[in-house]
Task: structure prediction
Amino acid sequence: MKRPLIQRIFQKRDISILQKVVFIGGRSYFPSVRVRCIEVANAIGCDYITDVDSIADIPKDKEIFICVKPLFNKEDLADLQKRGVVIWDIHDNYCPRNFIDYYLVSSKGAYQKFCSYGKTYIIPHHHCNFSGFFRRSRLRGKPTWMGSPEWIPSDLHFDFEVYNSKDMTTEQVYDVYRNSTILLNIRAATSITSESVSEHIRINPGIKLINSIGFGVPSISSPEPAYLEIGPECTLFAKDSEDCKNLVIQLQQDDDLYNRLRNNCIFKASQYSLANIAQKYLDLLISKV
Result:
C-alpha cells in the first residue's frame, strides 16, 4: 500500500507522534474543512473525522486534536483539553479564547489579529494542483473569476467567465484552473476602489492567488493584504475597474509580461504545494507540541 505523502518524504523522522493526532472537522461540505482537515490529514498520515457533533465520537487513543471549524462549545473544548493538546485552526473572525493550547493561522494579517490569544503559528494554505504544469499553446481569452456568488465583482465593466465554486466538485475546480489563461482575484466586497479593508479581508488567507500560482496562471488581484504578502511578483494589482480592464488587455497582448508572471508563478508554486504545507504541520507537531 502506498504510504501517505509526508511519510514518504520524511522516512527517517520519528512519525510516532502522528498516531496520537486526529484532525477534527466541522461540516464536510465546508471548503476549509476539506482542505485543512481532510487533505492535510491524508497527506501526513493522520486520522481525521468530520461532521463531529460530540467529543464522544473522538477515538480515546488520540491526544493531539487539530480543530478545523468543529461545532464545539466551551464545555466540549474544556473536556477535550483534559484529554491532551488542542490546536485551533482559525478560518474566520471567530475563534474561542479558552481551552486552546495553540492557534494556527494562514496569513500575517490573521497572525496580527489573533496572536494575543495565545501561541500562534502561521501555516499557509496549499494550492490544489497535484499534477504539475502544462504548456500554454492557445490564445489568451477572457479572464476567469471563480468563487462564491456573493463575492462576484459587479463593478468590472468587461467580459469575464464566472464559475460558482459552491456548485463545483474538487475536480471541476481543478479543471477550471487548468484551462484558464488569466485569473481574477477580485471580490465584490473589497470594491477595488475602496480605501477601507474589512476584517474578513484583513485575515483572508489569499487562496485565490495561491491557486493561481499553483497552476502557473498569471492573474489580476485587488490589493488585499494576503495577496501583497503571498506573491506580488506573480500577479498584477488593479487600482480600480478601469485599471483592471487595462491590465487584462496587457496580459492578453504582452507576451513578455505574461510569461514573466507565469514563470514567477511556476518558480513559487512549490512553496504552497501540499507536500511543503504538510511538512510545516509535521515540524510543528514534532518541535512545538
Remarks:
- The chain has two domains: 5-126+274-287, 144-272.
- Confidence is low (pLDDT under 50) at residues 5-13.
- The two ends are 29 Å apart (CA to CA).
